[in-house]
Amino acid sequence: MSSVQFDPLVVAVIIGMSAATYVTKAGGLWLLGHINVSDRTEAGLEVLPGAIIISILGPELTSAGPAEWSAAAVVLLVMWRTENVLVALVCGVAAVLLFRTIS
Amino acid sequence: MSTGSADSAHQSEEPEGPTVEFSLSGVRDGYIECVPIALGVAGYGIVFGVLSRQAGLSVAEAAFMSATVLAGAAQLIAIKLWETPIPILTVIGTTFIVNLRYVLMGAALRPWFSQLSPLKAYGSVFFTADENWALTMGKLKSGSHQGAYLLGSGLAIWSFWIVATVLGAIAGGVIGEPAQYGLDFVLTAVFLAIAVGLWEGKSSFLPWITAFSIAVLGAHFLPGRWYILFGGVAGSLVEVIRFDE
Known about the structure:
A: 81% helix, B: mainly alpha, globular
């Protein structure tokens, strides 16, 4: 596959994604003149990204094994201590390679 | 990008008070002051580029997605969902749901942006990302009149995000078998890191454990990737139901 190719279907999906994203970005600016978002709805919307990330991780982690679980713990620990994503990623990948070798 | 939770500053009253201007110096100040943050965002961009290549996108397609979508978490989730054939509805629907928080962020800009021309206001919001939105809100609330600050800081994020995507995608194309380097674990690690950033203490526990349980159940009983939306929406609903402060 050439690195500069554009597949028409892929481009169409990306345009769909960008339209969906722009609707949310412009929507708040437009909407608040017309509708009042309750604090309750607001709280629910704020929780969404975290809940979706956890929903991705759930089945992923439960179907994994001890090597991945240990590496996941390393990522959480390093991220919590350093708040640096790249450092956490590098440690996590190194950990998963190590744990897979010894297990 | 799109990792920090938006501590949404909800303006219930709509003061016509704060006056804003839209100037080139506002764009420039926003850009320059956002460069350190954009460098951090670039770290995610490199990871996104590598993973998008592994998912089968070309360098050009990855760059095109970063240039037009400009939403980090949503793009990473899309890459996670990406397979052949592309599950079009799931990818676009999940993108929309993940980005719903931008509605709140856009709403918070209203007291200032309602004074700008529609072209300036609706053009600027394209460049909203969590990081530069927070920077802009801090600026405006402290009395700045620079309505172009969101655009300038957003352009910093946007340009760094695209360049980092291209660099990552080129690197990702060179790498061979992903599992050999532990690359199959990178996306999981990215989501774990994002989760740490979104964790808000004890209050996150109930919605997250709900999302987790429903997602694990859903992965068992539902086809495709529906468990992601079901889990996410269930977690959000729990928050809506228990909310009563």
